Each structure stands twice: as C-alpha cells, then as structure tokens.
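Researcher: I've been going back and forth with a colleague about how YqeG family HAD IIIA-type phosphatase might be arranged in three dimensions. Neither of us has a model we trust, so I'd like an independent prediction. The organism is Heyndrickxia acidicola, in case that matters for your notes. Sequence below.
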Amino acid sequence: MHTEGSVRSLLNRFLPNEHVKSVFQIDPLKLKEKGIKAIITDLDNTLVEWDRPHATPKLIDWFENMRKHAIKVTIVSNNKEIRVKDFADPLGIPYLFQARKPLTRAFKKAVELMNVKKEETVVIGDQLLTDVLGGNRSGFYTILVVPVAQSDGFATRFNRKIERRIMNYFRRKGLINWEDSL
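Model: Here is an independent structure prediction for YqeG family HAD IIIA-type phosphatase. You can compare it with whatever you and your colleague have in mind.
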C-alpha cells in the first residue's frame, strides 16, 4: 500500500528545479552566478521542433552566446544518430544519441565529455518522463522548457498524456504555479 508520502516522493522525481518558456530565457550570466559551467540539453522540441533538421538563426546566436560565456553545451538525445549528427555537426556541438533517457548513463557520459562536475551542470529538456526524470535521478539541476512544437512524434504523444497528469498533481499540491505548463 502506498502512503501519500511515498507517492509524493516518487512524483518529486519528475519535478524540475525550474520552468521556462524556451531556452532563450536561459541566461549564461545567471547560470554562471549559480556556478554552472555546462549544459546538457535535449534536442527535439527543446531546441527546435522535432521535424526541423537544422538550428534557427536565433538558436545559433544562443549557442554562440553560451560559448562566449565559456558555458559548454552537449546535446543528449534519445533520437537516432543521423538526426542528432545532422543537427549538431554544423554547429560544432558534441552530442550523444540513442541516450535511453531517463537512464542515467548518457548524463554521466556527457559530464565526462565536457570535463565538468555534476554540480556545475544543468539539464534542459521538454519532457518530464525523459529529461527531467533522468536529470533528477542523476542529481542534476533540471530546467523544463515548454515544447517548441505543438505536435510530437508517436512515442512522445503517449508520454505527454502521462506528463499532463503529473503536472496537474503538482498544480493541485501547490508544488508548481506555472501558467504555461504542458
């Protein structure tokens, strides 16, 4: 039998530390104030729409701004190599593909690649069930973004239904008060 406390404890694994409308609201100076030196970010519906092959000019500027402030970025995606490689290579951004988030191995590998500590790294993503859960399980500060696209691939559509229920629970319990949640 689950107690209220054990259910809350389980659901808290899905609770991000922060919620923003888009990656463009993530400021490198504020990250540096928190001692952050690196970002692990999802790709699809976090940086661009899941069906957009390349970065937008605004996103290219965002990456450049992070680089200027010495904040390293690695893309960690559950997608196939061809998708992630075609997006990341023109930008010169390291990436891990078929990451199997929320499993923790890819998050740990990204930190090793960037040669930073877990405490110096944030995880950014648009999904509670993969990005936030995986980041939280690995001990990172997590930032949830509103999905870039209103549509999703098949597997993600299923996840979104579960996420809406979790977000509604958080709202009812007063754990979140974001107006633009999933």
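Researcher: What would you highlight for our discussion?
Model: I'd start with this: The chain has a mean pLDDT of 90. After that, consider the following. Residues 154-172 form the longest helix (19 residues).
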